[in-house]
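Our consortium's second objective concerns turning raw sequence data into structural hypotheses that experimental partners can test. To show how far this objective has progressed, the report includes one record in full. It was chosen at random from the queue rather than selected for favorable results. The single chain below, 287 residues long, was entered without modification.
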Amino acid sequence: MSFIRNMQTLGVAALMACATVSLQPGYAFAAEETVLATVNGDKVLKKEVMNVINSYPVPVKEEDKPALVKMILSQMIDERLIDADIEKSKIAESKAYKERLDVIKTQLAKQMYIEKMLEGKLTDKAVKAEYTKFKKAYGGKTEIHARHILVPTETEAEQVIKDLDAGKDFAKLAQQRSSGPTAPNGGDLGYFTEGDMVPEFSKAAFALKPGTYTKSPIKTQFGYHVIKVEDKRERKVPPLEGELEGRIRNALGQEALQKHLDTLHKKAEIVLYDESGKPIEMPKEDK
């Protein structure tokens, strides 16, 4: 039923629902082997339609089933017609088809090879151990939520500070005067730890109390900054479940794959050549 699901994903289902299919009254209560349609003699059974409905991730309400059956049946009829026309066209015998099929086979073989190679390496125990390392490195740090206004000269930065002292809104001034990429967002930098920013910026920012801003321009390699701290807190470690677990599993998989490739490289005899066809002598550590 991959064709049907693809159609639904692409939104074609909404259009197909408009197609009219002649059904006997009471079909929704008929036996599983009941024939709902024939396409050039090929039967479409009720159980085929119900299998699609039952595979939906969210249960379908009983009152919605008649319309859904009609839509799915219409799609199945189209599938039968397309399948028959594909067979008639003999596209599966064409050179282009066979070439594409070879590519798909190769990709599938690689995917299955990697899956087999990773068997036993991405266990829950390994993931939890990596999460423990992550918590130790990530947690226990202070982070601040800050905004900044970046200008090219010290004089401009001093004028910004004067305007702030006069009561002007920091975010609006950032939108009007900052040359940094965060200007449209009022200079908002979000939360960050001390090591995330250049030293001069971090030292000044982390010295501020929430709700205060620097009283003198802060010079960095990017220009002159006026910084305001909105909040300060201890960074919380996100839970393992969800996105973080996926990232950890992906990282472990990449690490395992790289180790496997390193082993294959060591076992293989690899020779590189320059553009003239002359072998390139590789350093011993790269072999």
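The partners drew two points from this record. The CA atoms of residues 153 and 224 lie 6 Å apart. The mean pLDDT is 87. Both points have been shared with the crystallography group to help prioritize constructs.
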